[in-house]
């Protein structure tokens, strides 16, 4: 049923929803951002994937942008019945299970340490671990792509060992090289572009995560699994 014509039987204002539901806000006149309430982890992200699969079937939905524990829903036109959209999204979220994305296993040859690992000493200071132990724990992880964002092709990777989780830097690097392997809080990643970056560098991978001429243009996709394979260790 189109949102432009359907009355809402149980309106739920955007600014007041029960705590067991998602947070909803409008972005412009025809986009809605659903933010999940809960920990940033793989099970919650799988619910976001399941929600996207359900919502994209609605005829009034023009585009979906899954993010980190959130989903941006863009409608084809400005809805006359905003509360009806809210009800639909909240009901879809309540019914969403966990979608298991099949994904691929992608191995990333990595040089740990070396000229691009500017933040490895700081990671060691923060964690109390030696550089070799930080590298060992990082390369032993099997990571899952939760979402793409921040820069074209950049993948947020879950599965980082809690013992090497380091907060993002208060003062970002002004020119971190594309391909730098990084840690940012509970996640790891590969810098997609050369430029300012607040994550902590511990290595480098010689690969393109984004190629606008390729199909698809991104190397990684939500649900893919990533393993960092030490190619060289320069400590």
Radius of gyration: 20 Å
Structural class: alpha+beta
Count of DSSP E strands?
13
**Name of the top-level CATH class of the largest domain:** Mainly Beta
Q: How is the largest sheet built, in terms of strand order?
A: 7-6-13-5-12-9-10
Number of domains: 2
Biggest sheet features? 7 strands, mixed
* CATH fold description of the largest domain: Cyclophilin
**CATH architecture tag of the largest domain:** Beta Barrel
CATH superfamily of the largest domain: Cyclophilin-like
Beta-strand portion reads: 25-35%
Distance between the first and last residues' Cα: 61 Å
Low-confidence stretches: 5-19
* Nearest-integer average pLDDT: 89
Sequence of secondary-structure elements: EEHEEHEHHEEEEEEEE
Main attributes of the structure:
4 helices, Gyrase A, domain 2, Cyclophilin, alpha+beta, 235 residues, seven-stranded mixed beta sheet
